[in-house]
Structures are given as structure tokens and as C-alpha cells.
Design brief:
The complex is a heterotrimer of chains A (about 350), B (about 400) and C (about 250).
Chain A lengths: L13 H14 L1 H16 L2 H32 L6 H19 L1 H5 L3 H31 L6 H23 L4 E2 L9 E4 L2 E4 H23 L1 H11 L1 H6 L4 H27 L1 E2 L3 H16 L4 H21 L4 H15 L11
Antiparallel strand pairs in A: 1-4, 2-3
Helix pairs in contact in A: 1-2, 2-13, 3-8, 3-11, 3-12, 3-13, 4-6, 4-7, 4-11, 4-12, 6-11, 8-9, 12-13, 12-14, 13-14
Chain B lengths: L1 H4 L8 H15 L1 H4 L3 H27 L6 H19 L3 H28 L2 H21 L1 H4 L5 E2 L17 E4 L1 H10 L4 H5 E4 L3 H25 L1 H11 L1 H6 L4 H27 L1 E2 L1 H4 L2 H14 L5 H26 L6 H5 L5 H15 L3 H13 L20
Helix pairs in contact in B: 4-11, 4-14, 4-16, 4-17, 5-6, 5-14, 6-7, 6-14, 11-12, 11-14, 12-14, 16-17, 16-20, 17-20
Chain C lengths: L9 E12 L2 E12 L3 E5 L6 H8 L4 E9 L2 E2 L5 H7 L1 E4 L11 H8 L7 H10 L1 H5 L10 H13 L5 E5 L7 H16 L3 E5 L3 H7 L2 E6 L2 E7 H6 L1 H12 L4
Parallel strand pairs in C: 3-8, 3-9, 6-7, 7-8
Antiparallel strand pairs in C: 1-2, 1-4, 4-5, 9-10
Helix pairs in contact in C: 3-6
Classes of the chains: A mainly alpha (about 350), B mainly alpha (about 400), C alpha/beta (about 250).
């Protein structure tokens, strides 16, 4: 991430510095918060620890971004609140783990990067496919009948989440499943005497890649124009001859697929999966989409990184308060900006 | 007089009246009708959950506020008592002190949540409460020295409410309905005698009746609330918040008071739970799953009817306790280890309940109570009854 | 009630349309013919059902009874996107400009058959110069009149057979209203059929060829604008009924 630095701004007097910080805060609240958090953490620990934690936090954030982006888009575009999103995270994790454990175990257990990739990539792909396919059915059976009614959406998606998680237990059993991480993705690389975990670097790279891709689609393509227009005024998009339903179905499937991808990544990160892992991650996902502003991909990305970082920083300083700090961050941001960091939806 | 007691809000369906009477009688004479520890503890849970679900209905059904923090307040009540008796000994004084402290914390937190909800859109509220409740759960789980962490805490109840306390010298006679029925079915000539059993009144029986009495009073109180002018304003807010505002009602004040009232009642339910269950841990008071169960009970019973809370809590807890037996029976009829046997295994009862829940939201959005009322209204067509069932399609949330 | 006489072809025919919004019955049997290649003005007081008529044609309300014919198609009950693709463009009263999108993106979105035609775009930007000026700015920053230009521009970025325009002059300054009228004159010259809802009688008198007046969810008068503009008695009767507030 390029650090556009506010401290480097020309500061003639403290008053002018204060003013420019304030201006920066109001114009780029996401950068302000991110840099502020990183700076605050740097004051509380030594540099090496800080760097390792920052990388880990960014990695966690990148995976959380994959999981959360789909939910924020479905809400933004169609005003649909899908509380079963966590179930798709679990689905992806189990689908990916199945591929690694049973179908491509040889590749996964090998010690060459290329063989490992030949195991990991199909695993991620399979996770994406499974989540997308179930997403298609889920939209059809569960969400379509309750369009435009938030209360019913909350109810049926909570019910749908129970059903999906139970079905996962039917297929894969109720027990935790260990997921071995292929060798090429384990261990660390040492840069200037600091050990950085490889898998985390991969996760950050994938997260940034997906973010860049999504940004490109949304900013530069016709589909992106339609999505942004649909977020703003669904009816007018239909008036111009586009079937918003299909567009939404596409976005929902893509969102589910991303959740599946995030879940599979998370499975290899944690090396242990349970059917309910999606429920636990849903909390972070919810915090992220509120933090970022419902419907905003950019806000979602920054929200995810913020949640990842605060989890790791606070987890290092006082492990018991990590979850509280995450939710505290959300509450604080809501007090400051009720619509989230980068609001998209107007009331 | 009865109508007055029920604040004029009658069940309005003969079948519903019968069901409610059956539940009332079963709970009132429960210890004398159903022998066995399992039935006894289930009835206690029904009483606790009637309070919990009815207070949730006040928010969900009557005001369309979706909160996922109801279990947090339940947990505060339960842990409040557990920690108080743990610290100050098992006297009524410490129970009261613990309850007072829990209520205080509840009011503060509910007020903060209510104030926070002013800053955000209605739909945010559900998500914010979800996150806050989770943070609370994680805090309770992590603070091992204070809360016992995952292990939870035993609650040493006052002696008068424990099993060792015997208010009566001799035991009383009970009449076991399950035994009587099975004896009738098997054609036993001595069915009446077989069904008699001895009931020893102890502190736990007393505690059960405290819970039962509280549930009854809270229920009647809530009926009064929703049928008061205050309750009418809530329903106006539910139907159209903007219009209610335009009529000059401070909707923010109303919504916040509902959140606080409902939270306090949940806290009270938590106090009763701790005393009746005598063991609290994060799983039985704070887990997200429990929150989902409350939602299920409220919706399937019938949102916005209050009676739905009674029916929903009773049906759900019956299912939770006995549906598994039924599934176990079913699974013995199937080839072992087949996919089908996996699907209907007793541990899969939640799958079927989830399915039932989703279907009921689609096809019976007014829940059991709403459906019964609709049928009875249809039957009395020449004497039309105004339909006051919650309109589930309302869009208050999206504003 | 048949449409204006002397038109061989009707662009759009409504017969006996009943439509509801929520539980309110808004249209109670609307019969209306929009002659091909003409500008028809739909007059009537607030709440007469003019906007609902346009929305109903566009498939945005549910038709309880009656038929809508557009050219050779019976479009009754078609979904909105299909109606749009059949060749009807709609500019609602609130204009429906996408404020987060730039002017360019608004037009790209409106050009449903692929990239915009260069010549037509040039013609359009000539018609509405501000659109060129604010080409890459978010449309939300435009003024009311500029938004209206963009809204109409979107409707005509590709040729359409029928334009439905709901109160384009609402809340605009007189100078801008004049510009709009000039632009609509140009579109008229293109022989596009236009159905225009308008409360501003001077504006509609200038543009309208045929006219229909609505009251209480029905069309109560149809005829030529020339006839209405010259017949004081008729005007008085209809104005007393429909346009009193604007005189």
C-alpha cells in the first residue's frame, strides 16, 4: 500500500499542521484511520514486532475482505441483507479442504512449489465453484421470495444459514477437520532479519489482486456502471432496459464465490475447520461492512484491513480484548460517521 | 374480569384459547402432572423463555426492531446473580443485589445501544447489536477469573430455593398424565391408580413456582403495555415511522424505551434462569445459537401477538427435548450409516427445524397464532373480526 | 373515446387501464391514443393519475385490467426492461439521473445497444451544451436544469419510437424552460412520438399537437391542442376542472 503521508505535509505552524490533518481526516477518513491505527501501534511496541503484526493483520484483513465484499455488494445493489453469508465461507473452506485432503493430496503433500500450486489452485477453484453453485440455488429458493422486505430477509437468511451449516455437518460430519498447509506456503522468508510468514504474503497478494480486479470492474466496465447505477436507483436501471434481477443474481453468485474463496484461504491459514467457522467470521464481516459503509467496495477493503490490524495489535497487547477492540472500533466509527467510512447508500 | 386481566386482547380463536389454557394448566400444575426430572426442568425453561420471547416480541413484533443482543441482556441477568451469590454467599440479599446490579448494567447498555441506533439506519441496528453481543460473549469467555470462562459458574441458590429445603413434612399426591395415557392405551384396568405418584415439595418446586408466577405476571404486564396508548404508538411506528413522527410522536424516545424495557425483562429472565438452572455458562446464556432460537420461537409462534411467545416457546422447547427422541425412533427404521439416516439422525433436529422455520416465514408469516386467528376469523365471516395481526410485509426497517 | 383524428397510425394505445398503487386505486379505466410522430400533452390537476399513467405504460405499476398496445405489440404486463427495449424511453418526474455516475457514464448506460453513435452524440451535445461541459463530472453535481437535460439526453441517445416525459419544467427557471422547449421542438422535428405530462399550460400550448385531459383516473377530453388553445369555453371548462391552480 502506498502511504500517502499526511505528516509530510508542509507544516509552517502547529495550527496549520492541525488544519491540514483535519482536512485530511475529513477528505480521506479511511487513510486517516488506517495510518492513525498503525502509528498508534508503532508507539506501543518495537519495530520488528510491529512489522510482523502489520503483515499478519494485513493478511487477515485481505482474507476478510474476500469474505465481506460479496455481502456489502449484495446489500448495496439489491438492499438484501444476507445473514447466511457466513455459511458460504464455511462451504468454501470445506470444499477447498476436501480437494486438498482427498483429491489432490499428493500435490498438496509434495515439496515443490509448482506441485503445491497444482493442488492449491484447484482447491481454491473448487471452493469458488461450490460456493457459487450453492449461491445460485440459495438466491433462487431463499432470497428471491423475500425481496424488498428486510425483516423477512433477516429471518429467512438466518434460517437458511442454519440449514446450510447443518447440511455441511451432514456431508462432512460434525467434527473439526485438520487442513494441512502445503509446504511451499508454510514457513517464512527472512527479510532483513525479520521472518515474514509466506502464506500471509500470499494472502495479502491475493486480497490486493482481487480488490484491484473488483475496482477495475466497478470503475471501468459497463457492468460496473450498471452495478453503481443499480445501487443508486434500481428502478431507473430497469427503465433503461436492463434486467436488474439478472445483474443481481450475478453479483450474488460472485459474492458467494468470493466468500467461498475467502473461506478456503482461511482454512489453510487456520489449518483447522468447523462448520461454524462461518458464524464466527460473520462477526468480523459484519463489523467490516458497517465500518466501511454498506455497499462500498473500497470501504470494505479498508474496513477489512483495519479489522485485521486491530485484531493483531490488540491481540498482541492484550489477547482477551481483541474482539472487544474490534467492535469498539466499529462503535467509535459509527459515532464519528454514522454511514461508515465511505458511504455509498443514501437514506 | 378476564378480559380486563388480558387488557381486552383476547386470543380470538377457540383453538388458540384451548391451547393457551392447556399450556397454562400444564404449567400451573406441572409438578403434579408430569413426573421426572426432564419434564420438570423443561417446564422451568418454558417459563423462563416465555418471558424472554415475549419481551423480544415487544421489539420484533410490535416495533419491528431486530436486535441480536437479547441474549446479552439475558446473560447479564444470569451472570449477575451467579457472580453475586458467588461473592456474597447464597442469601436472598445477594440475589437481589446481583439482580439490581445486572438491571443497572442492562439499562446502561440498552440506553447506549438505543442511542447508537439513533445515529444509524434501522437496518444497521440489527448488525450493530450482532457485533456488540459477540464482543460481550467473547469478553465473558475470556475473563476466566471473574466469569469462569467456558466452564461457567455454579449458582449456589438460597437454601429455600434448593433441593434440600422441605417446607412440608409429608409428600403430596400427583397424577401422572403420561403414565395415565400410556396405561389407557395399553388397556390397563388400573390406569387411575397407576398414574398416581408422590410429589415431594422442596425448594426447587418453590423456585419453579416463582418462575411460573413471574412469567404469568410479566406476560399480563406486557399485554397491558401493548394495548396501552404506548403500545398503539409502537404499532404506529412499526407501520409507518415517518407518519408517526409527523403526528408529533418522538419516535426515538419510544424506540429507545422499548429497547430498554425489553432488555430489562430479558435480564429478569436471566436471573430466573440462573436460579432455576443453577449453572450458567456462555453457551446456555449468551451463544448466538440461543439468540437464533429466540428468534425462531418468536416468529413461529406469531410475531406481534404476545400469545405467540407462549405458543412458540412451548412448542420449540418440546421439539428440542422430544423431537430428538422421535428422530431417534425414525433412524432405527432406516438402514444404518446411509445418507438418509444421516439426515434424520437425532442430532439433525435443528436442520428440520430450520427448514420448518424458513417455510413458515414464507407460508405462515403470522405464525401459529396468526394462522389460528385467521382461520377463526374466516369461519365467523358473517360476524367479521377485524384482523389486527402483524403485517409482516411492512417496510419500517428499510427507512 | 378515440384519439386525435387524421392520424393513420397510433404509436401507443391504452384501453380501459385500471391500476393500483398499494391499496389505492389510481387509474380507473384510462383510454388514450398517442398518435405516431406527434407530441401529445397530458393535462390534468395533481392526483389525476398522469404520472401513474406514464409509470403504468412503462410497466412500473401492476395493471389490474385493460390493454396497452405499442406499435404492433401488446405490451400489457411486460416487465419494464422489455418495454424499454421495445423502444419506449421514460423520463420520470424526479429525472432519475444517477448522481454517482458521471455524465458520460449516464449516457453510456442509456445506450443499450452498444457504444454510443458518434454523430448522434455530437447532435445531442449540441442540443444540450452543458452536458459537454460537465462530461466527466458526477451527475449529482449538475443543476436541476442540467439534470433535466441529461435525463432527456439519456432518453434520446439512441433513437426511440416513443418518449414519455413527466413534467420536465417543474422547478426550472424560465430561461431554462425556453431552452428545453427548443430542444423538444427539435425532437418533434425528428418525428419521435412524445407523450408529455405538463402542468405549465404556456409550455404545453407551444409544443403540443394533440392533448388529453385527465381527471380522477380517467381521460375526460381528447382533441387537438389548436382546438383547446382557441376555444375559450372548452379551456375554461377544462381549466376550471384541471388547470385552475396554474392560471
Amino acid at each position: 500500500m502506498p502511504t500517502t503521508n499526511h505528516t509530510a505535509a508542509p507544516a509552517g505552524t502547529p495550527a496549520r499542521l492541525g488544519a491540514s490533518i483535519r482536512q485530511f481526516r475529513d477528505q480521506h477518513p479511511h487513510w486517516f484511520l488506517l495510518l492513525g491505527l498503525m502509528l498508534a501501534a508503532l508507539l506501543l511496541m518495537d519495530f520488528t514486532t510491529w512489522l510482523v503484526l502489520t503483515l499478519s493483520g494485513a493478511a487477515m484483513g485481505a482474507m476478510l475482505f474476500l469474505m465481506a465484499s460479496g455481502m456489502t455488494l449484495t446489500f448495496g445493489l439489491m438492499n438484501v441483507l444476507n445473514l447466511a453469508h457466513g455459511a458460504f465461507i464455511s462451504l468454501g473452506a470445506f470444499a477447498g479442504a476436501t480437494t486438498l485432503l482427498f483429491w489432490l493430496n499428493d500435490q498438496a503433500a509434495a515439496s515443490s512449489l509448482w506441485l503445491n500450486l497444482a493442488g492449491v489452485l484447484p482447491a481454491l477453484l473448487f471452493a469458488v465453484l461450490v460456493a457459487a453453485a450453492i449461491g445460485l440455488m440459495f438466491e433462487w429458493l431463499v432470497i428471491r421470495p423475500v425481496y424488498g422486505d428486510h425483516l423477512k430477509q433477516i429471518l429467512v437468511t438466518v434460517g437458511g444459514s442454519i440449514i446450510l451449516m447443518q447440511l455441511i455437518e451432514v456431508v462432512w460430519g460434525p467434527n473439526e477437520i485438520p487442513v494441512p498447509r502445503p509446504e511451499a506456503f508454510s514457513g517464512a522468508v527472512v527479510v532483513a532479519g525479520i521472518a515474514l510468514e509466506k502464506y500471509r504474503l500470499w494472502a495479502v497478494a491475493l486480497g490486493v489482486l482481487v480488490y484491484a480486479l473488483m475496482t477495475w470492474v466497478i470503475e471501468r466496465t459497463r457492468i460496473g456502471i450498471l452495478i453503481r447505477a443499480g445501487v443508486e436507483d434500481r428502478e431507473m436501471v430497469e427503465v433503461h432496459g436492463y434486467r436488474v434481477r439478472l445483474l443481481f443474481l450475478g453479483v450474488f453468485i460472485a459474492g458467494s464465490a468470493l466468500a467461498g474463496l475467502g473461506g478456503a484461504m482461511w482454512a489453510m491459514y487456520q489449518e483447522l475447520i468447523t462448520a461454524h467457522m462461518g458464524d464466527e467470521l460473520m462477526i468480523s464481516v459484519v463489523v467490516i461492512i458497517i465500518l466501511g459503509g454498506l455497499g462500498s467496495v473500497k470501504g470494505c477493503f479498508f474496513g477489512a484491513i483495519l479489522v485485521g490490524l486491530i485484531n493483531l495489535y490488540v491481540g498482541f497487547l492484550e489477547p482477551r480484548l481483541a474482539a472487544v477492540a474490534t467492535v469498539g472500533l466499529m462503535v467509535a466509527v459509527l459515532m464519528w460517521r454514522p454511514q461508515g467510512l465511505i458511504p455509498v447508500i443514501r437514506v | 374480569m378476564l378480559s380486563n386481566l388480558l387488557s381486552g386482547d383476547l386470543p380470538r380463536s377457540r383453538r388458540l384459547t384451548a391451547a393457551l389454557l392447556a399450556i397454562l394448566l400444564a404449567l400451573a400444575f406441572g409438578p403434579f402432572l408430569f413426573p421426572g426430572v426432564r419434564a420438570f426442568s423443561m417446564m422451568g425453561m418454558i417459563c423462563v423463555f416465555i418471558i424472554l420471547v415475549a419481551s423480544y416480541d415487544l421489539m420484533l413484533g410490535y416495533t419491528h426492531i431486530v436486535s441480536f443482543a437479547h441474549t446479552m441482556f439475558f446473560g447479564i441477568g444470569a451472570y449477575g446473580v451467579a457472580m453475586a451469590v458467588g461473592t456474597w454467599g447464597n442469601s436472598f440479599g445477594s440475589v437481589l443485589l446481583g439482580m439490581a446490579g445486572a438491571l443497572l448494567l442492562t439499562i446502561v447498555l440498552a440506553l447506549l445501544l438505543g442511542l447508537l441506533s439513533l445515529r444509524v439506519k434501522a437496518i444497521f441496528f440489527a448488525l450493530v447489536t450482532l457485533a456488540v453481543a459477540f464482543a460481550f460473549l467473547s469478553l465473558v469467555t475470556q475473563l476466566y477469573p471473574v466469569t469462569g470462562g467456558e466452564d461457567g459458574m455454579r449458582v449456589r441458590v438460597p437454601r429455600e430455593l434448593g433441593p434440600a429445603f422441605r417446607p412440608l413434612e409429608q409428600s403430596l399426591w400427583g397424577f401422572s398424565l403420561p403414565d395415565f395415557c400410556s396405561a389407557l392405551v395399553s388397556g390397563s384396568a388400573t390406569a387411575w391408580d397407576d398414574a398416581l405418584f408422590q410429589v415431594r415439595i422442596n425448594g426447587r418446586t418453590l423456585m419453579y413456582y416463582v418462575a411460573f408466577g413471574t412469567a404469568l405476571l410479566v406476560f399480563l404486564f406486557l399485554l397491558r403495555v401493548v394495548n396501552s396508548p404506548f403500545g398503539k404508538v409502537l404499532q404506529a411506528i412499526r407501520e409507518n415511522e415517518f407518519r408517526a413522527q409527523a403526528l408529533g410522536y418522538n419516535t426515538v424516545l419510544y424506540r429507545t424505551s422499548v429497547v430498554i424495557l425489553s432488555a430489562c425483562l430479558a435480564c429478569l429472565a436471566g436471573v430466573l434462569f440462573a436460579l432455576i438452572n443453577r449453572y450458567v455458562n456462555p453457551e446456555n446464556t449468551l451463544a448466538f445459537e440461543l439468540m437464533v432460537f429466540i428468534l425462531l420461537m418468536c416468529v413461529m409462534g406469531g410475531m406481534g401477538t404476545l400469545y405467540g411467545a407462549v405458543v412458540g416457546a412451548s412448542l420449540f422447547l418440546l421439539a428440542q427435548n422430544y423431537l430428538q427422541d422421535l428422530l431417534k425412533l425414525l433412524v432405527t427404521q432406516l438402514p444404518p450409516d446411509s445418507g438418509l439416516a444421516n439426515l434424520v439422525g437425532p442430532e439433525r433436529w435443528l436442520l428440520w427445524f430450520g427448514l420448518l422455520f424458513v417455510l413458515s416465514v414464507y407460508f405462515f408469516p403470522a405464525g401459529v397464532v396468526g394462522q389460528l386467528r385467521r382461520w377463526s376469523a374466516r369461519r365467523q365471516q358473517n360476524n367479521p373480526v377485524v384482523e389486527v395481526v402483524a403485517k409482516p410485509g411492512s417496510q419500517t426497517l428499510s427507512s | 373515446m378515440s384519439g386525435a383524428s387524421g392520424n393513420p397510425r397510433a404509436a401507443l394505445t391504452l384501453s380501459g387501464i385500471h391500476a393500483n398503487i398499494d391499496q389505492y386505486h389510481i387509474l380507473e379505466g384510462v383510454d388514450l391514443v398517442v398518435p405516431a410522430g406527434e407530441l401529445t400533452v397530458l393535462l390534468g390537476r395533481n392526483g389525476a393519475g398522469k404520472s401513474t399513467t406514464l409509470r403504468t405504460i412503462m410497466g412500473l405499476t401492476t395493471i389490474k385490467a385493460g390493454r396497452v398496445r405499442f406499435g404492433d405489440h401488446d405490451i400489457t404486463g411486460w416487465p419494464t426492461p422489455r418495454i424499454a427495449r421495445a423502444g419506449i424511453a421514460f423520463v420520470p418526474e424526479h429525472m432519475g439521473v444517477f448522481g454517482q455516475l458521471t455524465v458520460r457514464e449516464n449516457l453510456v448506460l442509456a445506450a443499450i445497444n452498444g457504444p454510443m453513435d458518434e454523430d448522434r452524440l455530437a447532435w445531442l451535445l449540441d442540443l444540450f451544451p452543458p452536458l459537454k461541459k460537465f462530461w466527466d463530472r458526477p451527475a449529482g453535481n449538475l443543476s436541476g436544469g442540467q439534470k433535466q437535460m441529461l435525463a432527456i439526453g439519456r432518453a434520446v441517445i439512441e433513437p426511440r419510437q416513443l418518449l414519455l416525459i413527466d413534467e420536465p419544467t417543474k422547478g426550472l427557471a424560465p430561461a431554462i424552460i425556453n431552452d428545453l422547449a427548443d430542444a423538444l421542438e427539435q425532437l418533434k422535428a425528428e418525428k419521435v412520438s412524445i407523450l408529455l405530462v405538463e402542468q405549465n399550460f404556456n409550455f404545453s400550448r407551444r409544443l403540443g399537437q394533440s392533448v388529453a385531459v385527465m381527471n380522477d383516473g380517467r381521460v375526460v377530453h381528447t382533441g387537438s391542442m389548436a382546438e383547446l388553445a382557441t376555444d375559450d369555453a372548452l379551456q375554461h371548462r377544462l381549466l376550471g376542472l384541471g388547470l385552475g391552480a396554474h392560471q
